[in-house]
Amino acid sequence: MSLQGPVVVVADQSASDLVGAITAAGAFPVVEASRADAAAAIGKIEPAAVVLADPDISPLGRKITDALGKVATRSHGLYLPVLARMAPGAKPVIPDALPIAADASVDRIVARLGCALRVRTLDATRRRRAETLAAQGTEVPELADTDPLDDATVLVLGRGRSYPELSIAVGERLGLIGALSVETAARYLNARDVDGVLVSDGFGPRIVDAFLQVLAENARFRDLPVAVLAGTAGAIDHGTLPNMEMVAGTPADVVTRVLPLVRQHAYAGRLQRLLAAIEAKGMIDAETSLFTVAAFLRDLRRAVSEAAEYGSGLSIARFSFAAPIDRRTSFDAARLVSRLVRSIDFACRAVDGSILVVFSATSLRSAHVVARRIGSVLKHTMLSSATKDRRIDPLITLATLKASDTVESLLARVNETSAVAAE
Length: 423
Prior knowledge:
By secondary structure, the protein is of the alpha/beta class. It has three domains: about 5-140, 3-Layer(aba) Sandwich (Rossmann fold); about 150-265, Rossmann fold (3-Layer(aba) Sandwich); about 290-420, Reverse transcriptase/Diguanylate cyclase domain (Alpha-Beta Plaits). It is about 45% helix and about 15% strand. Strands 2-1-3-4-5 form a five-stranded parallel beta sheet. Strands 7-6-8-9-10 form a five-stranded parallel beta sheet, sandwiched between helices. Strands 12-13-11-14-15 form a five-stranded antiparallel beta sheet, with helices on both faces. α1 (about 15-25) links the parallel β1 (about 5-10) and β2 (about 30-35). It is globular. Residues about 415-423 have low confidence and may be disordered.
């Protein structure tokens, strides 16, 4: 898509090439302002995005931050991306500014700006559809007000000297998936929703380049933040992954560098789930992508009634966890289940954190096979920092509809203690 405007480019030295490239990409107007005039320009123009073209704006960072805050207030919190050229090891002066290398090309800045503006468009779309739904008198799902990093998960790939320290640094701030091989990393990327990839050392440049090329060729990973330790990759065209950064420094520095990009990606995921919930008119839970409990019970009553009327089979499975799991893992497991259930089935995350799945037109034997497969994927894919060995082991309770059953009795049976373990 073409870029939207207006855009403010902050630079003391001429940035005509950058202004021209952003204009050519479709943004209008594009206003160039000096650092001293940046706060006033932002307050007057109320831009859709800001690009800090000079690597160092620290003397005026506070004024620019205040101006951005006022614009956000007037737009009721609509996402306002800020891109900042930053020297290696530099600390962000503007909170949540999206870092980009100080020597990044104009084309690369425009590509990253396009990714950020897609998130802004997603936010605006969510607001517009929520207002339409509210005008119809329907209850509108709300956007969570917690830090998107609370839901974020990063895949760390490596097997060299830096890998353990980077894994620890990431795990202290974010959900962590570790992979010691490219094949394992690919499996996790295909099975899980991740908000960033950090490529550590231990692989040859050709292997790293091939991995990055696979990411670049898949539209699903187009905007995924990818951080690569300096000197690890070879001749990969960085332009194919707009949110890719070559990083250096201590593990804490590396994590700090990529956090804003990971936060943006996690926020985009949150917006997409909320849009799906709005499109479903509140039937879908925005945090899990499964049915809400109320919608699940309504659909279950209809399914039980139809099964009794037409004599079709109906089974229900409950996935619970003997060991406690953290909030991020609980919701992540629910999202994974939402991708695993068949289109004819439906599921919800219960208040106690267990997951209920109804298998329509399915016998107990067939439901047992499907439930074991789902449980196996959870067991071999999900990791939790709250469990001792980090791998979660779901317990599966199954029940099938009997002629004398009601919704209440069916749910009571599936909540019994008898269970089968996932393979």
